[in-house]
Predict the 3D structure of the following.
Amino acid sequence: MVRLNKIYTRTGDAGTTALVSGPRRDKHDLRVEAYGTVDETNSTIGMVRLHTADMPELDAMLARIQNDLFDLGADLANPEVVENPEYEPLRIVEAQVTRLESEIDALNATIEPLRSFVLPGGSPAAAALHLGRTISRRAERLMVQLSRQEDVGAPALKYINRLSDFLFVAARHTNDDGKTDVLWVPGKNR
């Protein structure tokens, strides 16, 4: 159980932070950058949800994703593999990836296929979802880079990859199932 009694500890004043398993890392460490960008994605989804209250099915999906993103942050913040740990480290699991794929398929079922690339915009919800999509892609790039240097679980990498797909499809869904998408017109302003 998480208990936060004191918000500031002064332990990070020298530019380091503690991972769940205890070791300290620089605040610009790639692992810290990765889980910080996952947190940024989560915050953006929180902003998206200001626009999805009247879409209960989508809002529930986004609420589940926000919880999953805390799981992902915990996964990334606890990289150490310790024999006989005091507790089982929280990890993203395949079931979370599978659920996200099912939700993508459900949202995408009624959307017309694309004829062009989509510009970020349309409804306020769609614009915010596109912002979340681009931030999640940055988190993914950082996680892939980290995975080349340290262990990152395969389900975690799959989850962040599917998340940007979900956010793209959700944006189209909120744009009247793609009918009000803003499409790219190549060379339009030449």
In short: The mean pLDDT is 90.
